[in-house]
Amino acid sequence: MNCEVSILLEHRCDQLKHLSDDSLKQLPQVFKKALQYVKRFSRFTNQDAVKQVREVLSRYQLAEYELAVLGNLCPETVEEANAVVPSLKTKGRSHDDEAIEKLLNDLLMVKKFE
């Protein structure tokens, strides 16, 4: 998820700052742009909230890409969730509308208390 990448890149940036005073000038442009992007589009900024989101989404036996899409976009309705992750409705999966609604409510609770 973007929020996890943001935490990792910020940590790496902090490590580089401690190694050298000129480290920010030495950071590749791609690194700076990637950090800027994930900071801008991260739905969760608090590290504890990021862990909670990962835990909540992991309970639902989602594929890694499904987990990332739902964590990044935080859809508000079942219809939105199914539109952005059509595989939630694949035959043979245990994700009915009620389970998806519960997942979205769990995400909303994390966001509210962040």
From TrEMBL:
Organism encoding this protein: Ziziphus jujuba (Chinese jujube)
GO cellular component, one term: DNA-directed RNA polymerase complex
SMART domains referenced in this protein's UniProt entry, alphabetically: RPOL4c
Encoding gene per record: LOC107419738
Keywords: DNA-directed RNA polymerase, Nucleus, Transcription
Family membership noted in the UniProt record: Belongs to the eukaryotic RPB4 RNA polymerase subunit family.
Protein name: DNA-directed RNA polymerase II subunit 4 isoform X1
Pfam family, one: RNA_pol_Rpb4
Main location: nucleus
Subcellular location as annotated: Nucleus
Regions annotated as coiled coil: none
Protein origin, superkingdom: Eukaryota
Domain annotation RNA polymerase Rpb4/RPC9 core: ranges: 1-114
InterPro entries: HRDC-like_sf, RNA_pol_Rpb4/RPC9_core, Rpb4-like, Rpb4/RPC9, Rpb4/RPC9_sf
